Amino acid sequence: MTNEITIPLLPCASIDDIVAFYEVLGFHTTYQQRKPYPCVGLQREDLNLQFFEIAGFDPAQSYGSCLVLTSDTGQLYRAFAAGMRAAYGKVLVSGTPRMTRPRARKNADGLSGFSLIDPGGNWIRVFQNAPATPASAPTGRLGKAMANAVVQSDSRGDARQAARILDSALAHPEADDDPVALVEVLVYRAEVAMVLNDPATAVEMLARLDRVALSVDDATRAAAAYEAATDLAAALSSAPHSADTAP
């Protein structure tokens, strides 16, 4: 048989909150009911998700998760980010809901991936379909630290361990460190700080970017990281008292 379709069914505290959030990302409702239990189906092009409501459900305790495979993680991320900016004035990088940035995943053969954590606490894990040639392994001291930290925070949800890895790398600079890798580490450490409700550290990391000397070629390579830094700065300015502020 061919053409089978699998659609994940994920828990949430409120299907109304789920619908409102996913509409921001470009989804539309395909099915909704209130009895015998509340549930909703959502679709964005070929991406289908369904959710069921549980009274008293705590998103922080959710184990809900699913994989999404796409040929271009960057394109899907940019579409989601544009929707967030239009609706909230920023990309959500902390609290629930939030979204990580596409990065090479050491625990996924180096393929690009990002995670969307929705209002139900579900982790929608977006990965790139396997390319024709394997992705290269991370190189350099900072690149390897970055790869290990991404596994901890973006995949496992352990932002504290990611912070420890990045802080150790930043505490021992070396003369031959790649300046672009340093920019990536500083930006990612700021993002992790936001997840940990530590805006002071996020501000410190972003301020350190101004002290990184880059060539013209380096600046081009670091463009995506600086774009992420802009999103982090916007999130910081809109939530001065807490990095865990809901949108």
Automatic annotation (TrEMBL):
Family matches, as InterPro entries: Glyas_Bleomycin-R_OHBP_Dase
Q: Which domain of life is it from?
A: Bacteria
Q: Which SUPFAM superfamilies match?
A: Glyoxalase/Bleomycin resistance protein/Dihydroxybiphenyl dioxygenase (SSF54593)
The protein in question is named: VOC family protein
